[in-house]
Amino acid sequence: MRREPLMERPESLFDIRLDPRDRSAAPPPEPPAPSRKPTPRPKAKAEPDMRSAPAPRRGRSDPPPRPPRRGGGRVLFRLVKWGLILGVWALLALAGVIAYEASKLPPMQTLMIPKRPPTVTVQGANGKTIATRGDMGGVAVPIGELPPYLPKAFVAIEDQRFYSHFGLDPEGLARALVTNLTSRRLRQGGSTLTQQLAKNLFLTQERTASRKMQELVLALWLEHKFTKDQLLDLYLNRVYFGAGAYGVEAASQRYFGKSARQVTVAEAAMLAGLVNSPSRLAPTRNLKGAQARANLVLAAMRDQKMITADVASAAQARPAQLARAGMPDSSGYVADWVMDQLDSVLGDGELPGDVVVRTTIDPALQKAGEAALEDTLAKSGAKYGVGQGAVVVLDPDGGVKALIGGRSYADSQYNRAVTARRQPGSAFKPFIYLTAVEHGLTPESVRDDAPIQLKGWRPENSTREYRGPVTLTTALALSLNTVSVRLALEFGPKAVVQTAHRMGISSNLDPNPSIALGTSEVSVLELAGAYTPFANGGLGVMPHVIDSVIGPDGKPLYERNVTGMGRVVASEYVAMMNHMMTQTLAAGTARRADLPGWEAAGKTGTSQDYRDAWFVGYTAKYVTAVWLGNDDSSPTKKASGANLPVEVWSRVMKAAHQGVPVAELPGGLRSYGFGGNGYGQPGGTYLPPADLPDDRPAAVVGQMPPRPPQQEPPMTLDRWFAETFLGQGRR
User: Which pTM was predicted?
Assistant: First the structure.
């Protein structure tokens, strides 16, 4: 008989044998051996049908069934217990994080001197402010000197429970949390005024958990250190209001042109509304948004009984308005240039605090130059196809008295007086003539005004007319191109470039024959500076605008004591050049210049295709350079140095010389010894009395000279008869 193997572990006596009845199609049992008798089995009373309802079997080692569970009290107890444990650990962790973030803060005593970005106040030579740059911080105004409704406006809109909380406002935080969760975006911050003060004074604007922890620590410290009024005082005098204004006084001056002590209820509400989003709501860029926010502030003040309903309604009916800027628009060009120059006079690095920069600018002359340029362009700009201009006025020491870098600073901050470089045309010729006289020529030296050709390049006079032998005085006054080229070739383009650089031109100049026609680009500022030695007797200057810089402690950080570049031209050559250039105004291309009673000299310039029109003229007191043209270098409608620039120059120089004692040029006509009677007086010229050309671009011919315009033959009796009766010559 086959036996089923007994597979059991002694420790469990687990039997895995199957009952024969559980087997399907089991073979019949073998007959018992004859020598053994089968063990009698007890007869079961009733065998259940295992096929229809098999009963689960349990091993010998199965545990007894568990008793039913008791109630959920034990589970609840465990939840409460573990909740308390986790809460304690969370508080300990929070305290540890706060302690760690507090340890990273600098010592509290070092935080007592709050910092803000420095302000650069730009003053004119008379000490009056003409512009501010950088972030503006006003003088701190004690809270007791402010109108009572001004601090109340901030409390009403920013922190209604300011006087009752301890630096943190749990109710406000909870309300902000609910609002942010329900709206699914960050709409409220829940920060108190004390927290905002901590952030604005001592921390960065980054939104991190670390910074928030430090803000909480500082807020608690501030509440412990100061009274509520002291905290509000600090807040009002340090918070940012947009447009570079820090503090309520700076903001009031910036937006309303008055002290914070004098603001109205409507203005106070606007200031209080700005701190929520100063960059977006700054009235200079979003006046409507600032006024709408001010209405919310007024409503909050009314609801909290800080002002009456009538006062709120009156303020809403007449919202705050911006004050008009009182300084000339062009002062922005000066201020920008001053900021560029600060590093060179103070050295690289951060400013030590608020500084005051005293400049050489004459505010009245700056305004006169701005008006002259704008009026001329408004009247004649469209006619001549001119859209932009620049004006620079220097004194004999190189101090910039006026600098107008464009038609409107509000429309374009690009400084055409300092940054732009354009072809000066004939305005460059004085450096060629100076080179000639320094090499032995005189104003009476004669050169031939006739066509000239150099390797296929033929520079011609603009009229293509030639005068033959002429003196240098006549050639310069009439801007004869052929004589200028002959002189440049005679003494060498390199010598001309060296002369220009010695006089003050800093731009790169190409030493080629075309230098005689002013083809290398220069700026208005450097050209004015290069003419200045003619006005001061031969001393080189470095155009400058900064006279002194005063630090936050009232002590000077910089005072200009540079005298210049020394003598760059001998006095006898200065006298010769002044003699020649006075004739440009007396009877030459700049004869339309109008400056009665003053001996003046200068030179016009017009670049190829009438793209640039120049006039640089000077007296013993001032040098003024004027440029007119278009930013894209497109040709104008025949704007030349002889028309619009001379007109602007005359207006500016008349304003500059108002009330100034008359002085003649160094070595001028009265002292030069050539017998002249002075600028503008009879007998003071050696030029032909008629057929004087205006300043025009040079007629330059390349490889293939253009066909010259046909000259109309003189009218004769035979020609008149042929054209009138026979039709000959008509087209």
Answer: 0.69
